[in-house]
Design brief:
The chain is an alpha+beta fold. Helices cover 17% and strands 33% of the residues. It has two domains: 1-27 and 92-316, Thrombin, subunit H; 319-412, Pdz3 Domain (Roll). It is globular, with a radius of gyration of 27 Å.
């Protein structure tokens, strides 16, 4: 498996053999000037579609013989129902009607959600070797309601390095806004920007309900081209332990999608076909810095949990369990030990921690946490980090061939 590392887009070439996971920021200097020839579509059944151009074989290059019993030469305007190709065209018409309905749905979702998507431009300053370099980067965000107020939900790396006064927000109608407050969290790469103007709110979905193979749409600002729409499916869930270069994103639980995500899509919404936000587009895996069909997005349940903490407390109050887990513990070992191909093995329990108070021991395998199956150690770290503070959380552990239920109270992580 290739090494997954992080690098900034549009800043130098990538070696062809190196797969980089890239936070999808976009330069504000897209490459223009290419002349694009318009695509001229042709309806199935148009008269301009000649049989002489039929790719089925040489026989199709000759026109069908015409009955000239009446002495007139011509072609009947009535379709030949016995022609198998005409039957195929009829079937295509029926199938196209279904595809056309799907295309109409995609158009309606895009029209509905675009007004809630915000184009973000950030003027940043980067200091290297005592020298300062200013540059512009673009991203996106989506307007959500938190505590009765309008906030733009986006990625932290979209606005990292920019002062609030150097951040410009633009609506789909071109209205220019400035954030009155900016709050972010390093451990999840989530940020919120408060706006004091009425902008249509996005509808929030439930990321736990989406399944692999479901259709999704992405809206963002690839290469600075604001409010661009792409389409694809959800390719995978639970992508964790991704190395993202200098950006330390500790709590990971990414969706993977093949909807085209490019530099500049960061912070924009990933939608289901109900027009609901189900994730926030964040990164791509790419050899060349552009879309190669592997994009990553933060599930909206996770993003909104963090955003709510940022608005109410000014920071994410991370949960603390008080255990050290074994990163080498595999699903095969868990299956042999517990009979289940999942779980996280406890290597150490810290004195006075919530784990010790719940009588968790070294060698226990934690199988469930707060009603969810624990897939591995990274999954448990994320679940604990986002768990509500000072609330009783049920757990299931495996010990000495038996399963036990317990509960514990999550405490805030003390740095």
């Amino acid at each position: 498996m290739p090494d997954l590392s992080f690098s900034r887009p549009v800043r130098g070439p990538y070696p062809s053999h190196w797969l980089a996971i890239t936070l999808v920021l976009g330069s504000l200097s897209p490459v223009f000037g290419q002349v694009v020839e318009p695509y001229r579509s042709q309806r199935v059944g148009d008269a301009a579609f000649e049989r002489s151009r039929d790719p089925l074989g040489d026989e199709a290059t000759n026109p069908d013989p015409v009955d000239n019993a009446g002495g007139d030469f011509g072609v009947s305007l009535s379709p030949n129902r016995s022609d198998p190709r005409e039957a195929l065209y009829a079937e295509l018409d029926e199938d196209y009607a279904l595809i056309d309905r799907l295309a109409g749905l995609v158009k309606r979702v895009a029209k509905l959600v675009k007004p809630s998507v915000i184009h973000i431009e950030a003027r940043k300053v980067e200091k290297t070797r005592g020298r300062s370099e200013a540059f512009d980067e673009a991203g996106a965000g989506v307007v959500v309601e938190i505590a009765g107020e309008s906030w733009v939900l986006t990625n932290r790396h979209v606005i990292l390095g920019a002062e609030p006064s150097e951040i410009v927000l633009r609506t789909s109608e071109g209205v220019k806004l400035r954030p009155s407050r900016v709050i972010s969290d390093e451990s999840t790469d989530v940020a919120v920007l408060k706006i004091d103007r009425s902008v249509p709110l996005a509808k929030i979905g439930r990321s736990g309900e989406i399944e692999i193979g479901d259709f999704v749409m992405a809206i963002g600002s690839p290469f600075g081209l604001s409010h661009s729409v792409t389409f694809g499916i959800l390719s995978a869930r639970g992508r964790r332990d991704l190395t993202l270069g200098n950006e330390r994103i500790e709590l990971q639980d990414f969706f993977q999608t093949d909807a085209a995500i490019n530099p500049g899509n960061s912070g924009g919404p990933l939608l289901n076909l109900r027009g609901e936000v189900i994730a926030i587009n964040t990164a791509i895996a790419s050899n060349g810095g552009g879309s190669e069909g592997i994009g990553f997005a933060i599930p909206i349940d996770m993003a909104m949990r963090v955003a709510d903490e940022l608005v109410h407390f000014g920071k994410l109050r991370r949960g603390y369990l008080g255990v050290t887990l074994d990163p080498e513990f595999t699903s095969a070992e868990s299956l042999r030990l517990t009979g289940a191909a999942y779980g996280a093995l406890v290597k150490e329990v810290r004195p006075g921690s919530p784990a010790q108070q719940a009588r968790i021991r070294r060698g226990d395998v934690i199988l469930e946490f707060d009603g969810a199956t624990v897939e591995n150690d990274d999954h448990l770290v994320t679940r604990v980090g986002l768990a509500p503070i000072d609330r009783e959380v049920p757990i299931v552990i495996h010990r000495d061939g038996q399963r036990y239920r317990a509960s514990l109270q999550i405490e805030p992580l003390k740095k």
